[in-house]
């Protein structure tokens, strides 16, 4: 197998370092937008994966209608690349709601809300700022994290949005199918159930004179099966731009679709049968693989049979007992992480690999927790 | 129970935020230095826990003989607070060994080494810089990560250090008892075995005319049992300055000895029996508790029966089914993390709580992976 990260592996001054291969990013974006176009779906990608203005700009250039974020710090950064920002998060505490209302001065801003409290405080914040905030009612469709439980509860919250007055605008419904990690060919049944719950909710809203302009769904695992949820108007995949061992091991993409990798150096081989690299959980995170938690903390491209068995903060211990060869001290290896989003958040920069060479890029929205 | 983080909880503008209570830090440092003084041990604390010049300065003021780091970026930051830096890491790749040799121009610098390759390349780097690097031979005493396996192998490496010439200085032996997570009263047997292996190694070195000036050991779990390893001259605890739920649940300290906590806000209560806070694994890390992996992702001070059952990047889901009361939307809660070191690495700043008020402090060495 050709290691697409070979150039960066040769040229990097210091390790560990996160490399992103630009041609692979381009291919991933093209594939997503081609699917979305085919099914009449808009794309509003979640930028939590890359946290970077440069990749956000690429997404907009590929036809994304806006950008999705979780926290307000991210909203303010991504607002520099798009005038249309969805905060797919209950941004209802005093600091966030004030910043949402401020951002709405210059941007189309929408917030996912799942409480009457949220509706009230966002309305008050928008009134204080003299702005208008779009509201998507967060409907729980099976992933029990946020979201109102039933079509009736969604209707009640939607009516409260309308009653809250002119500083809120009822825009539609948001879902997050975070529980759908089945292989693509087994998703149809779960997605059809989601489709039914959404259809029931929309029918109820319409029967009460409420329109549903946006039905926002999707995630990377469900991205290419979004057409099974017929009422969706848009999808919000995040990981898709880079992919990782979670999406590979779940069968959503191939190893060659992984655009991001950590280059690390072997710094110890003193313990027989293993070696230690200079990337621990401060570089790769402690996240286990979602579907194969015992598969190790990432994939070693040069030694596919190797297993990253334990991470300390700065040490990654790799078991080479299944390999014909073992790396030498000082050798560099290429790791595809289990979960690329929090891994990106641990780096101050990307090393962008382009046909012209290696370029350094800031992770602009890294660590913006508020 | 009084919540020692109440002041910050009231006064913080935005959440999630990492608060450190200064009086608790002072007490933790006093306790450690009092134990060390009593047993004639020097303290060379590992600064990976706090990654901050201010706390490093406090450690030096309490009598630490130097500071310990893993990576070179940390060494360069902590070198501003102490002239004596131990790099307890195989810093042998081209970038690190060059920076080690440079730092040795102005500082007493020591590196833990476990390979002949490491000895050779560090000698060459020091020669190129015209400096001298101190070497501690890393001896594996049961935690199979780094370290030469036997007293004989340690002797062989020590002899290679001497033979490498005047740019290396053989300073002694380093151990890391990373496997010792037994309760304090059960550690004696394991530590006595370590004591024997060290005694054998030292005897062998001395029989070959090599002196052992430094025997560097310790970690937070073993810190207060260090006297069972009689040959130690110094200890390197890290977590001890702040403590966390790992040290609490292992019985190494009390909840009241935890100096650092994350203040978070409840942002959703839509799913019955649980609530969602605005701190996920981007704030708390995914690290499970070492001894009680099913105890949840940290301790909720205000609701001791609550359990943080799942973390997404920006959502922390808390199960309140065991509690008499549940928090309200918008309420703030105080979380003691499982593992404070990587949690600190996720924050750009601390909010330092002092008798005078809240002070903002940079995490100076955050994210310095190289």
TrEMBL record, chains A, B:
<dbReference type="GO" id="GO:0008721">
    <property type="term" value="F:D-serine ammonia-lyase activity"/>
</dbReference>
<protein>
    <submittedName>
        <fullName>D-TA family PLP-dependent enzyme</fullName>
    </submittedName>
</protein>
<dbReference type="GO" id="GO:0036088">
    <property type="term" value="P:D-serine catabolic process"/>
</dbReference>
<comment type="similarity">
    <text>Belongs to the DSD1 family.</text>
</comment>
<dbReference type="InterPro" id="IPR042208">
    <property type="entry name" value="D-ser_dehydrat-like_sf"/>
</dbReference>
<dbReference type="InterPro" id="IPR029066">
    <property type="entry name" value="PLP-binding_barrel"/>
</dbReference>
<feature type="domain" description="D-serine dehydratase-like">
    <location>
        <begin position="259"/>
        <end position="354"/>
    </location>
</feature>
<dbReference type="Pfam" id="PF14031">
    <property type="entry name" value="D-ser_dehydrat"/>
</dbReference>
<dbReference type="InterPro" id="IPR001608">
    <property type="entry name" value="Ala_racemase_N"/>
</dbReference>
<dbReference type="Pfam" id="PF01168">
    <property type="entry name" value="Ala_racemase_N"/>
</dbReference>
<keyword id="KW-0456">Lyase</keyword>
<dbReference type="InterPro" id="IPR026956">
    <property type="entry name" value="D-ser_dehydrat-like_dom"/>
</dbReference>
<dbReference type="InterPro" id="IPR051466">
    <property type="entry name" value="D-amino_acid_metab_enzyme"/>
</dbReference>
